[in-house]
Design a protein that fits this description.
The complex is a heterotrimer. Chain A contains six helices and six strands, in the order βββαβββααααα. In chain A, helix 3 (133-140) crosses helix 6. By secondary structure, chain A is α+β, with helices and mostly antiparallel strands. Chain C is of the alpha+beta class. Chain C contains 18 helices and 31 strands. In chain C, helix 12 runs parallel beside helix 13. The model of chain C has no long low-confidence stretch (mean pLDDT 97). The chains are: A alpha+beta, B alpha+beta, C alpha+beta.
Chain lengths: 216, 313, 735
C-alpha cells in the first residue's frame, strides 16, 4: 500500500470532522498531519486506588486505576486468565465469576466497588488434578468446543444450581412459589451465557448430571 | 472511559450532597448500565459516588399494607421476595424476564428505573443523537429503528425505555421516593417519573440534580390474575419488542406496555373498554411508526389479545 | 518425503478402531474447564510486560482520512505511541485481503482500522483514543444489494456459471414448474473470542501469539504485508476461541500489534472490541437467489437453475450459494450462476460453509414448495431425485460415497416424521401452531495437504507436532487418537502440540477439511514413524504390527519404547492428495428435521425438536463430531430465525454491532438435539476414510426450520431471517 499525500481531490465537497472527544470542536486544520509537531506536555496519570480482594481464598491487595473492571483486574493484574472477555458489555456472560456467593458479569463492575469481597473464579473451582464436579461433568459430556465461554458457563452453572435450591424464580417457573429443577429451568437460567459453538445440550447434560437429575 | 475520582457514600443525604457538589457526578450502584455507557463514552462522569453501602436494601411492609422496596435491593432479591411473588406476581414476572441471572444479581431497583435506552445510535458517539447532544439530530429516525418506539415519540427522538420492571411498577402505581442534597424527601408517582422526549429528549426523568432515589413504594396488593407477557426475537436474554403487563380480576383490569415508548405506556381510559381491538386502539392512539417498527402496532394488539385469553384460562 | 494419496485406501491400521471411532473425552478438556488453556491475549508468561493497543476504526463508509491530529492523544497519560498509515512504514496488501488491514489515506469500509493507540494500560489506551481528531472526506458509497442487483456481473471465479443440457427448453416443457426468489442477510461469525494478538520482536524476528485458524497463512500474509522474510515470522495459536471463518487470515489486530511493537520496542497486545467486529472484520455477504425447478408430475426433476447475487468490495468475490445445487439432485438440464456487484460495505468472505449454508436455505425451501406442488411428501421428493453420480458430468463421475437416502429414511423415522400433517396449519397445542419440516444436508468434502512431525521416546510416549489448529473442532483429540491407533498405544500415551509455525505445516482449519486432512497428515507421518521404528528395532517394516504398546512381528514382541531406543525416533512427513476428488465427486450428506411452535398471536417461533441423520465418512470421535453437528445446527437456527447484520445505508455500515443487536441463539432457544451418524467409510477421501463434518450441520438446518414454519402456519416466507414481523401480518386474525 503506497502512502499517498493528503489532498482534497475526490473529496466531493463533503467533509466530516470526526471528533471523538465528546462535545469538543477544534479549529479546522489545513496543514497535513504533523505527528512530528511539538507534543503537548504529558498530563498527570490518574490516581491509583487501593483495593483488597479475596480471590479464590487468597487475599490480594492491589493498587488500581479505578477504571479497572473486576474482569481486567483478574486477567491483566492477577494473571488469572481463566475468566474471559467476550464482549466487555455484559452481553455474553463469558466473564461470569462468583462474588460474595453470587454470579455476576465481572466486566460490568469495577474492582474498587468490591473492596473486601470474596471472588471465586474458574481457577478457584478446581484444577486438572482436582476437578470440581461441574468441571468433571463438562469434560464427560463434552460441554465445550472452543472453550472460550466455558469458564463462564461453569461458574454460572454452579451458581444456577444454588439459585434453584434457594427457590429463586425464573421466567419459565410455572409456579413462582414452588421452584424445582428442570432442564427448561436450566436453559432459561443459563441463557446469560452465550456459546457460539453451541454446545448447549451438552452443557445442560453436564448440569443435569451434577444436579443428580439423571433418570436412568 | 474518562478518569474519575471515586468515593463511597455511607448516608443517602451525604451522597446527594456529594453529587450536588460535583457537577457531572454519577451515583453507581450495580453499575451494569452506567459502566456499559462509560466504556463507550456516552457517560463521562468525572466523579463516581458508590452508593452500595447506603443500607437501602430492605423490603418492608408499609403502614397501609403495601411494600417499600429499598433503592438498592437487587433485582434478583426483589423478584424472589416471597411477598412480591405472592402478592405482586406481575412484578416478579417482569423482573425475571429481563436481562440475565448475572445482571439481575447486580442490578438494583433504582438503577433499573434509571437505565437508559439501548438505541444503537445513542450508544454510538459518532452518530447524531439529540438525547446525547441536543440539537445534533436523531439518527434512528430513518435508520435502524426496528426495536424503537411507536408511542410518545417526537421528531427529535424515538428511543424506548428498556426496563421490564418499570412496566410492572407502572401497572402497580408505584411511587418513587427520593432525597435531595438539602435532605428533603419527596414521592414521585411513577407515571410522572419518566419523561417523554418532546423537544428535550436529554431530560429523561423528573429527578433534579443530586436527587437520589431511596426507595419505591407499592400500594397494597391487587388481587386478580397477574400476567407479564414479553415478546422478543429469541427465547431469552433479549429486550422486549413489545411487552404487556396485566392484572385482570373481578375488580377490573389494568394494562401497561413496554417496548413501545420512552416510558412504560399506560392509558387508564383504555382499561374501561372491552376486548382486544378496542383496548389496543385506545392505547395506541397517536402512534407514529417507522417502516421498520410499524409491526409493533399489530404485535401490541395481538399480544394483548393473547393476554386476555390467558387471563380467562 | 510425502505420502501421495491417489488411489482408494485399502485396509490400514486405522480400521482397527481401538482408539479412533470412540467417543473419548477431549484431551484438552481439563485445561479448558479450569481456565488453563491460554488464548492469544493471555500469554503473560511468554510475552511479559506487554503494553496495550486500542484500535480506532473509521466512522465513515468510504472516503479518505484528511488528517489525524494526535497531539492530545499522545499527551494523554500512559500513551506510548499512535500508529497510523502515515507512520507505519511501507505496507503491502496480501492477496488474502480485499480491504487493507490499515486504512489511510483511503477508507474502504466502515470501522476499517485507521489508528492504534498504544499505552501502558488498557484503560489508558482506550481513553486516549477519544482524543484523536480525525478529519474525513466522505465519498458516496454503494450499500444496497437489491438496488445493485440489475448491474451485477457474472463473478470471475472458476465455474461462476455452469450448464448442462438445455435448461430453458426443459423448464418450458416441464409439467410442474417453480420460480421463486429467496434472500439471506449479511451474517456475522460472532465467535466468543474477539480477534486478539500479542506481538513481540527480537531483533528482526517477530512472534505473534494470535487467534488464527491457518497458521501457515498467517506467517505468509504477515511477512508479505510487512515486507519481511517468512523465516522471521513465528505464529503461535494453540487455542482459538472460535473462528467460523473469521480468523482464516490475519486481521487488523495482528498487523497493528506488530507495527506497534516494532515502534515502541515492547510486546503489544491488541484485541478488537466486540462492537468493532461486525464492521472491521469479514462477514458472510447477503444473497438474493433465484431458484427455478421443472419436474414431471411425479416430482422427478428435469430442469434446475440456481442463480445467486451478492456484493463485495472491489476485488472481492461472491458468496458461492449455488454450489450444492450442482451436485445434490438429478436433472439433465441445469444452469447455475454467481453474480457479483461491487458494494462498499465491509469485506465479505468465508463464514461457516460458504455457499452451502445460505444456498440450501433457498434450494431446500424451493424443494419443499415443489413437494407441495406435486403433492409429494418432502422426504419422498428428495429420495426420488437422488443421484449417485455428478449430475453435470454423468455416470463417469460417481460420488465417492453418498448415503443421502439412508440419512433421509433413518432421520425421518427417528424424528417420527410420519406424524406430520401434510396439510399446513392443522396442528395446535395451546398457543402454539405446530409444524414439522425437513431439508437435505450437503457440504463438499475438500482435502488439503498436511504435514506432521511424530516421534516416540524411550518410554513409549508418542508426540505429535503440527501447526494444525483446534478452533473447538476437537483437533487435539482426534490427532491423538490417530497417532494412538497407528502406534498401537492408548491415548494417554500421546502428547499433541498444535498451532505453532515452528511445527510442520498442516491443512489448517477451514472448509470442514481440517479433521480429515490433518489426521491424514498424521497418519502419513505415523506410517513413516512405524517404518523407522521397525527398522531401528531390526524388524521387517512390512511385517511389523504396532499394538498394545508393543511392536510385534512373527514371534518377536518388544515394547514400543524399547524399539524406539534411548534417543527415540522422530520423523516428519506429509500427505498430498492426487486427483481422486476430481475423478469422484466427494461430499458429505445428511437430512435435517425440525418441529417448531409458532405462537398463534405473536408469530414468535420456538424450536421444539431438532434432529438429523448424517453420513460423513468415518467418524473419528463421535463425541466431538456430534458436538460439531449440533453446534452447526444451532447456527442454522440463528440463520433461520434471528441473525441479520442490518445495513444503515446512510452511513454505509452494519448498525447491529454487538451481541445485544445481532442475536445468536441462547440456551433457551435450543432443545435436545438428536444426531445420528450413518455408518460410512469413504476410501477415496483419505487414508482415514473420513470426511469433514464441522460444517455439514449448518447446511440445510435453517431450511428445515423454514419449512416447519410453513407447515405450522401455511405462511411461506422467503426472506431470512424469519422474524415475527414477517409472519405476524399473515397469521390468521385472532378470535
Amino acid at each position: 500500500m503506497e502512502i499517498e499525500g493528503i489532498s482534497d481531490e475526490g473529496s466531493d465537497g463533503m467533509t466530516r470532522r470526526s471528533v471523538l472527544a465528546a462535545g469538543a470542536m477544534t479549529a479546522t486544520l489545513s496543514a497535513t498531519p504533523s505527528l512530528e509537531a511539538k507534543p503537548l506536555p504529558k498530563s498527570d496519570a490518574p490516581q491509583l486506588t487501593k483495593v483488597n480482594l479475596n480471590v479464590n481464598g487468597k487475599r490480594q491487595t492491589l493498587s488500581l486505576d479505578p477504571r479497572t473492571t473486576l474482569l481486567d483486574t483478574l486477567r491483566e493484574h492477577l494473571h488469572l486468565t481463566g475468566t474471559k472477555k467476550g464482549c466487555d458489555h455484559g452481553q455474553c456472560g463469558a466473564c461470569t465469576v462468583i462474588v460474595e456467593g453470587r454470579r455476576i458479569n465481572s466486566c460490568l463492575t469495577l474492582a474498587v466497588m468490591h473492596d473486601g469481597d470474596a471472588v471465586t473464579t474458574i481457577e478457584g473451582l478446581g484444577t486438572p488434578d482436582d476437578l470440581h464436579p461441574m468441571q468433571k461433568a463438562f469434560v464427560a459430556h463434552d460441554g465445550y468446543q472452543c472453550g472460550y465461554c466455558t469458564p463462564g458457563q461453569i461458574c454460572s452453572a454452579v451458581a444456577v444450581l444454588e439459585e434453584i435450591k434457594a427457590g429463586v424464580p425464573s421466567h419459565v417457573s410455572d409456579d413462582l412459589l414452588d421452584i424445582a429443577y428442570s432442564d427448561d429451568e436450566v436453559r432459561e437460567r443459563m441463557s446469560g451465557n452465550i456459546c457460539r459453538c453451541a454446545a448447549y445440550p451438552n452443557i445442560v447434560a453436564a448440569i443435569r448430571d451434577v444436579a443428580g437429575e439423571n433418570k436412568a | 472511559m474518562k478518569p474519575f475520582t471515586y468515593v463511597r457514600a455511607t448516608d443517602p443525604v451525604e451522597a446527594a450532597r456529594e453529587a450536588a457538589g460535583h457537577p457531572g457526578a454519577r451515583f453507581i450502584a450495580g453499575g451494569t448500565n452506567l459502566l456499559d455507557l462509560m466504556k463507550v463514552q456516552v457517560e463521562t462522569p468525572g466523579h463516581l459516588i458508590d452508593i452500595n453501602k447506603l443500607g437501602l436494601d430492605k423490603i418492608e411492609k408499609t403502614s397501609d399494607g403495601g411494600l417499600r422496596i429499598g433503592a438498592l435491593v437487587r433485582n434478583t432479591d426483589l423478584a424472589a421476595d416471597k411477598r412480591v411473588r405472592r402478592d405482586y406476581g406481575v412484578l416478579t414476572r417482569a423482573l425475571v424476564s429481563g436481562a440475565s441471572g448475572q445482571l439481575r444479581n447486580k442490578a438494583t431497583t433504582a438503577g433499573n428505573l434509571l437505565q437508559r435506552t439501548r438505541c444503537a445510535y445513542f450508544y454510538d458517539i459518532s452518530k447524531p443523537c439529540n438525547k446525547r447532544k441536543p440539537g445534533s439530530g436523531c439518527a434512528a429516525i430513518g435508520g435502524f429503528s426496528r426495536s424503537l418506539a411507536i408511542l410518545g415519540t417526537s421528531d427529535t427522538c424515538i428511543a424506548t425505555h428498556p426496563s421490564d420492571m418499570a412496566v410492572a411498577m407502572r401497572l402497580l402505581d408505584a411511587t418513587i421516593e427520593t432525597v435531595n442534597p438539602a435532605g428533603a424527601s419527596r414521592a414521585i408517582p411513577i407515571a410522572d417519573f419518566h419523561k417523554l422526549p418532546g423537544s428535550t429528549p436529554h431530560i429523561e426523568t423528573a429527578l433534579a440534580p443530586g436527587e437520589l432515589i431511596t426507595g419505591v413504594v407499592l400500594p397494597r396488593p391487587l388481587g386478580g390474575k397477574h400476567i407479564y407477557r414479553k415478546v422478543r426475537d429469541r427465547a431469552s436474554y433479549a429486550f422486549a419488542l413489545v411487552s404487556v403487563a396485566a392484572v385482570i380480576g373481578p375488580d377490573g383490569q389494568r394494562f401497561a406496555f413496554g417496548g413501545v415508548a420512552a416510558k412504560p405506556w399506560r392509558v387508564e381510559a383504555a382499561e374501561k373498554l372491552k376486548g382486544m381491538e378496542a383496548i389496543a386502539a385506545s392505547v395506541t392512539l397517536g402512534a407514529v411508526t417507522t417502516e421498520q417498527n410499524a409491526f409493533k402496532l399489530t404485535l401490541l394488539q395481538r399480544t394483548l389479545g393473547a393476554v386476555l385469553v390467558e387471563a380467562k384460562a | 518425503m510425502s505420502m501421495k494419496f491417489d488411489s482408494p485406501a485399502g485396509p490400514n491400521p486405522i480400521d482397527r478402531q481401538r482408539v479412533v471411532g470412540h467417543p473419548l473425552d477431549r484431551i484438552d478438556g481439563p485445561l479448558k474447564v479450569t481456565g488453563g488453556a491460554l488464548y492469544a491475549y493471555e500469554q503473560h508468561e511468554a510475552a511479559p510486560e506487554a503494553v496495550y493497543g486500542w484500535v480506532v476504526g473509521a466512522t465513515i463508509g468510504k472516503g479518505r482520512v484528511r488528517s489525524i491530529d494526535a497531539r492530545d492523544a499522545e499527551a494523554a497519560p500512559g500513551v506510548l505511541a499512535i500508529v497510523t498509515a502515515a507512520n507505519a512504514g511501507p505496507l503491502k496488501k496480501s492477496r488474502s485481503h480485499t480491504a487493507h488491514l490499515l486504512a489511510g489515506p483511503r477508507v474502504e469500509h466502515y470501522d476499517q482500522a485507521v489508528a492504534l493507540v498504544v499505552a501502558e494500560s488498557f484503560e489508558q489506551a482506550r481513553d486516549a483514543a477519544r482524543l484523536l481528531r480525525i478529519d474525513y472526506a466522505i465519498e458516496k458509497g454503494r450499500y444496497d444489494l437489491a438496488a445493485a442487483r440489475g448491474a451485477a456481473k457474472i463473478a470471475s471465479d472458476k465455474d461462476a456459471t455452469t450448464k448442462a443440457g438445455d435448461f430453458d427448453g426443459a423448464f418450458k416443457a416441464a409439467a410442474v414448474t417453480l420460480d421463486h426468489v429467496y434472500t439471506t442477510p449479511d451474517q456475522s461469525h460472532q465467535m466468543m473470542e474477539p480477534h486478539a494478538t500479542i506481538a513481540a520482536w527480537q531483533g528482526d524476528k517477530l512472534t505473534l501469539w494470535t487467534s488464527n485458524q491457518m497458521v501457515a497463512w498467517a506467517v505468509r500474509d504477515m511477512a508479505t504485508t510487512l515486507g519481511i522474510p517468512r523465516e522471521n515470522v513465528r505464529v503461535v495459536s494453540p487455542y482459538i476461541g472460535g473462528g467460523f471463518g473469521s480468523k482464516l487470515w490475519i486481521r487488523a489486530d495482528a498487523l497493528l500489534a506488530a507495527l506497534a511493537s516494532r515502534k515502541v520496542g515492547r510486546p503489544v497486545k491488541v484485541a478488537l472490541a466486540r462492537p468493532q467486529i461486525a464492521n472491521n472484520t469479514t462477514h458472510r455477504p447477503a444473497t438474493i437467489q433465484r431458484l427455478r425447478i421443472g419436474a414431471d408430475k411425479d416430482g422427478v426433476i428435469s430442469a434446475i437453475s440456481h442463480e445467486s447475487w451478492s456484493g463485495d468490495l472491489p476485488g472481492g468475490g461472491p458468496e458461492t450459494a449455488t454450489q450444492q445445487t450442482r451436485l445434490l439432485y438429478r436433472g439433465e438440464n441445469r444452469f447455475t450462476a454467481h453474480y457479483l456487484t461491487e458494494l462498499d460495505l465491509p469485506e465479505g468472505n468465508a463464514m461457516r460453509a460458504p455457499g452451502e449454508a445460505v444456498g440450501l436455505l433457498a434450494l431446500e425451501v424451493a424443494m419443499d414448495e415443489l413437494a407441495e406442488k406435486v403433492g409429494l411428501d418432502p422426504v419422498e421428493l428428495r429420495i426420488r431425485n437422488d443421484v449417485q453420480f455428478d449430475p453435470e458430468k454423468g455416470p463417469e463421475r460417481p460420488f465417492s460415497s453418498r448415503k443421502l437416502v439412508e440419512c433421509l429414511k433413518i432421520g425421518a423415522e427417528r424424528f417420527h416424521w410420519s406424524r406430520r400433517s401434510p396439510k399446513p396449519a392443522q396442528v395446535r397445542d395451546g398457543r402454539w401452531l405446530i409444524g414439522m419440516g425437513m431439508a437435505s444436508a450437503f457440504r463438499n468434502n475438500l482435502v488439503q495437504k498436511s504435514a506432521a512431525r511424530v516421534g516416540v521416546d524411550a518410554k513409549g510416549i508418542v508426540t505429535v507436532e503440527t501447526d494444525m489448529t483446534d478452533i473447538g473442532t476437537g483437533s487435539y483429540t482426534i490427532i491423538a487418537q490417530t497417532a494412538a491407533e497407528m502406534m498401537g498405544v492408548t491415548i494417554d500415551k500421546v502428547a499433541v502440540r498444535l498451532g505453532d509455525s515452528l511445527f510442520p505445516a498442516s491443512a489448517g482449519s477451514g472448509g470442514q477439511w481440517g479433521a480429515n486432512s490433518s489426521t491424514a497428515g498424521v497418519y502419513a507421518a505415523c506410517v513413516a514413524l512405524r517404518n523407522a521404528v521397525a527398522q531401528k528395532a531390526g524388524f521387517n517394516a512390512e511385517d511389523a504390527d504396532f499394538v498394545d504398546g508393543h511392536v510385534v512381528a512373527g514371534n518377536r514382541r518388544i515394547r514400543l519404547g524399547e524399539a524406539a531406543g534411548a534417543d527415540g525416533v522422530t520423523v516428519t512427513d506429509s500427505i498430498e492428495f492426487g486427483d481422486l476428488d476430481e475423478r469422484y465427486a466427494q461430499a458429505t450428506f445428511g437430512a435435517h428435521f425440525c418441529e417448531v411452535g409458532v405462537d398463534a398471536a405473536t408469530g414468535e417461533v420456538r424450536i421444539r425438536r431438532q434432529g438429523g441423520a448424517f453420513a460423513a465418512g468415518r467418524i473419528i470421535n463421535p463425541k466431538s463430531a456430534r458436538n460439531q453437528v449440533i453446534g452447526a445446527m444451532t447456527m442454522g437456527v440463528g440463520a433461520a430465525l434471528m441473525e441479520e447484520l442490518i445495513v444503515d445505508k446512510r452511513f454505509g455500515y452494519f448498525a447491529t454491532r454487538d451481541l445485544a443487536d445481532y442475536h445468536v441463539p441462547v440456551h433457551a432457544d435450543i432443545p435436545e438435539q438428536d444426531v445420528f451418524f450413518v455408518e460410512e467409510l469413504d476410501d477415496k477421501s483419505s487414508p482415514m476414510k473420513a470426511k469433514g463434518v464441522g460444517e455439514l450441520g449448518i447446511c440445510g438446518a435453517g431450511a428445515a426450520i423454514a419449512n416447519a414454519i410453513y407447515n405450522a402456519t401455511g405462511v411461506r416466507i422467503r426472506e431470512f431471517p424469519l422474524t415475527l414481523d414477517k409472519l405476524i401480518e399473515k397469521l390468521p386474525p385472532m378470535v
